[in-house]
Design a protein that fits this description.
The protein has 210 residues and is mostly helical. The chain has helices at residues 30-85, 109-121, 138-141, 173-186, and strands spanning 2-5, 8-11, 97-99, 127-129, 193-194. It has a domain at 90-194. A three-stranded parallel beta sheet has the order 3-4-5, with no helix packed on it. The protein has a two-stranded antiparallel ribbon with strand order 1-2.
Length: 210
Amino acid sequence: MQYALGTEKVVMLDTSYAPTVRPLTLAEDPQVQRPRKILLTMLGICLFAWLGVIMLIGMSIVLVFVFMGVLAGLALTSVAFVAINSIDLNSFTNSTVVTSFSNSTVVTSTALNSVDKAVIKGVMCFHFYKRHSHVGGTWYANRYPDCQVDIPSNLYSYSFEINPQCSHYYSRQSEIADYLEKCTDNYGIRSYIHFDTTVTRCDWLDERQL
């Protein structure tokens, strides 16, 4: 069928045209997919938010333990400081006597600490009495072959005078004796030691606190 419209010709087909129409699936329906995308987005945001909260809680717990550890360390340091400074150096008098009986060594850690603090305070009042002609006690008296200490060498020294120069894992008698001699000289107490002297009696004078 043909129609003439002005200078143009319109051709109309006789066959009928019926377009194909089908319903949209859920995956194609924008009314369904939009809320679904919004829901998934909100779930993702909530998940990341919860992960952030969990991380913050974990970091807070770690910081609390670190803080408690620091406080505990400061407390122990304070206790040690107070204990060290609670030693009354004024209790030393001009007749303080530290004796050494049998073969026990005069140069003990307690004695050296006391002498060191007393020297700082200007209290020079110590008298040591030694039966032998040298310091060292048992490490001077016992000089049999292979005489040695029974604990690791790095543990057998004073905390204030570490002895790193050890030739054996278990130090020999001669090394320990030399070490004690060195400690005696380093702390300047040799002049307060009376060698070759045996103490036979000590009397406490309560009225003089001696």
